Amino acid sequence: MLRRCLSTGRPWKQSREPSKVNLPKGEALYGIHSVRQALQCNQRVFHKLFLRDTNGQKKKPTVDDERYVKEIKAMAVEAGISVSYESKWTLNHAVDDKPHQGVVLFADPLSIPEYIPQEPQLDAQGRPRLILALDEIHDAQNFGAVLRSAHFLGCDSVLTSMRHSAPLSPAVVRASVGAAEVLVSENRLLETRNMHQALAMSKDLGWTIVGACSGAKSLSLPTFELTTPTILVMGNEHRGLKSNIKQCCDVLVTIPGQTNHASKVDSLNLSVATGILLYQLLHVK
Fold first, then answer.
1. Domains 27-107 and 130-256+268-283 alike in fold
2. Which of the four pLDDT bands, split at 50, 70 and 90, describes residue 26?
């Protein structure tokens, strides 16, 4: 008996794609910039590159995208990585329907070194260094966007928590537009088993610990100036800084906003707030 769609009365179309696809080992990095940066930084073991088979595709890629895909393929071939052209369905399946832009690279996860507190030093230009500490950030998009801002704005390094934090997943790498790969390759992305202990030890060595937190005791951001090597701590998206982290801070700072108390929107997204703080501390005299 022929099955028909209840809404249209037309026969169901049988899918031509297989119900199961055997994917290469490793995690699936996706998106042109993420994959391109991963290959350039070469911090992983790579297994296979999937490119979308564009035969019969009506929508043509942009000139830039076409150039980047050719560059990605050339880098993969030079590195001895197997390349295959697959259907859009297969690529969608490999990344759970995330926006892959026709490029998926299977690779081992990145390895992040553990943070070892050291005495603070000035950077090459004689300016105070700034480390960004992320305490238990849960959202992959926030994590990636923060890494992108930290790299772009010239943060010395980024410190993350090993536990209760979003892993450095392909989603994070995609949201960072590949900045995560660069930070790892430059040894600027570090992690710690115990954030409070890492901050306390750094403070004893001479680092100034600054927490981002609203409240009566917090300084307005424009009144605070970066004059000593500093660790800026951002708390969790929901609860903010934990009490033991606050106690470790020398200073608390807040971003001033409008004073309309009738508004229900009284805070900023974590990644937006981090970008504002980093720009103010690193680029505003």
1. no
2. very high
